[in-house]
Amino acid sequence: MTTLDVVRGTAARVADAVKIYGVGGTEVRALDHVTVEFPAGRFTAIMGPSGSGKSTLMHCAAGLDTLTAGSAWIGDAELGSLNDRRLTLLRRERIGFVFQAFNLVPTLTVRENITLPLDLAGAAPDQAWLESLIEVVGLGDRLQHRPSELSGGQQQRVAVARALAGRPQVVFADEPTGNLDSRTGTEVLGLLRRAVDEMGQAVVMVTHDPTAAGFADEALFLADGRLVDRMERPTAASVLDRMKAFERRRS
Ligand SMILES: Nc1ncnc2c1ncn2[C@@H]1O[C@H](COP(=O)(O)OP(=O)(O)OP(=O)(O)O)[C@@H](O)[C@H]1O
Ligand SMILES: [Mg+2]
Questions:
Q1: Which residue range(s) make up the domain with 138?
Q2: Is residue 107 part of a domain?
Q3: Pocket residue to mutate for ligand 1, from 23, 34, 55, 177, most atoms within 8 A of Cβ
Q4: What digits encode the pLDDT tens for the residues 49-64?
Q5: What does pTM read for this prediction?
Q6: Is position 16 within any domain?
Q7: Ligand 1 atom closest to 48 (CA)
Q8: What CATH number is given to the structural domain containing 127?
Q9: pLDDT above 70 covers what percent of the chain?
């Protein structure tokens, strides 16, 4: 199989997705008929103002939350058709997560944190893959350290390595650089980019930051729960221009 065979296809998608929180007077329509695909081997950034539905889209696409209407798919599995047990297994085996708070286990070493999802799944790590991942994240000399002994950027690189360790179908990252300074943020974004380029990984990243979106292959823009625009090969400058145009239209 060539890399191209691996990168073909759709890693995740939602079709006509609607998410309504609350009932009656307090109802919030967080997603309003969103249809979008996240192809394999592609880095997608999800952008939009606070409250526009970015995290909701990510959580519903990743099976962390359920849609009110419409469907969400990981590969050929429709999440709404799975019972809790199968959904948990699918999340564990086919999805990697990176959150704004690094969510590392403080009592485990770097190496143990990276292999944690595999250990939980009772799966033997692919040692060659693990070693290459550790080399890519540049933490080979820190494997026995605890998270508290690492910088924020290093901790987030561990979280990215953990998300990639099981070669998931898709990695979802919600503001992975939100707590990092720009230099360490750039390290983490470079790592996600390499996972896409060198490993054919699908990455979906929620971000507010035009610079972060500049690492993606495509930027999607949400407003009020709707997909309002998309941009191929975004750059920090072009994304910033687009965001300013939205601001002008809204005011
Ligand atoms: N559990 C919840 N209960 C009720 N309303 C919610 C819940 N979670 C989100 N919302 C609402 O849904 C809308 C979309 O929220 P969401 O968290 O997806 O926005 P976001 O684009 O990720 O924003 P931010 O950039 O601030 O993280 C908001 O109006 C929010 O208040
Ligand atoms: Mg959010």
A1: 40-63+82-250
A2: yes
A3: 55
A4: 999 999 999 999 999 9
A5: 0.91
A6: no
A7: 21
A8: 3.40.50.300
A9: 96
Residue 8 maps to a domain: no
Number of folded domains that form the chain: 1
Task: Give residue-wise pLDDT tens across range 103-147.
Answer: 899 999 999 999 998 888 888 888 888 888 888 778 889 999 999
Would you say residue 34 lies in a domain? no
Pocket lining: 54 vs ligand 1, CB cutoff 6 Å: yes
The 10 Å Cβ neighbour count of residue 39 is 18
